[in-house]
Write the structure tokens for this entry.
Amino acid sequence: MRFNMGVRVAFAIIVLLLFGVYLYVHVADGPFSMNLDGANNEDSSAPVEDAARPETEGETANAEETASEPEPTPPPTVDPNSPEGRAAALGLPKPPDIDINSWEYLMANPDHSIEEYEPPHTHYKTAGMPDNIMSNQWGDGLRFDERICDAMTDFITAAGNEGFSVYLSSGYRSYNDQVANFNRKLNEGMTPDAAKKIVAVPGTSEHQTGLACDITDRYYERKDSSLENTELYKWMYDHCAEYGFILRYPKDKEDITQIIYEPWHFRYVGVEAATYMKENNLCFEEFYALYVDESQGA
Ligand SMILES: [Zn+2]
């Protein structure tokens, strides 16, 4: 609506200007000549008027039109408090037009508890997939938010087709699972502060979103930074965004994520967001901050 109004106003201005040109060209010698001259150019004097007149009609009209062109197109302005504005302030391109409150962007971290949130989850089986794709589906059970199962299958099947031995563990973990994990550490004699460094406080583990999975080489399951040397990891990292996944805890972002580098933990955010984050070297917290200004929040 606003755009249409703007176009109409601009059109009306152009029509009026053209009419003015017409009057200037055709009626300059008539009774309107003095009025027009005064309206168009306050400083104009008779000699200037005389000098301009010998020009052809076409040239005069073009000059008038060109001069009036910039007026109807004001420079575009970006709200500094919009995602685009915040990105621009950081020298980043326009971020995707998304609803940050949608399920794909659910944030669970030490500063964001999702309390007892439970996604619509389902058991995920790798049985029936190529032999080089395995999971702990019969052990702890592998579960995901059911909305990412297809993307996960595409992701790991592509890796399997490259010849990698893929092993999935730790998908969805419920709030109560996390309570049990945490209490186990306390029962082992740890202080709560010490336990927090190893096990996420219930409500703050990303595994509780159902959108994350630990993916390791089946023959190299060590979950430490050395995993980055496996060919599987290199392929997963290079291609994850194509399937809507990000490496959630990158090496160079530990101070922002507050979680150690985990070259095994992938998380779904959708292709659009994953691609933007990868292209601009942003971790999820940095991406999220483009949409949610926490300094103005609670
Ligand atoms: Zn994990």
About this structure: The chain has two domains: 2-68, 83-289. Residues 170, 207, 212, 214, 265 surround zinc ion (CB under 6 Å). Confidence is low (pLDDT under 50) at residues 27-61.
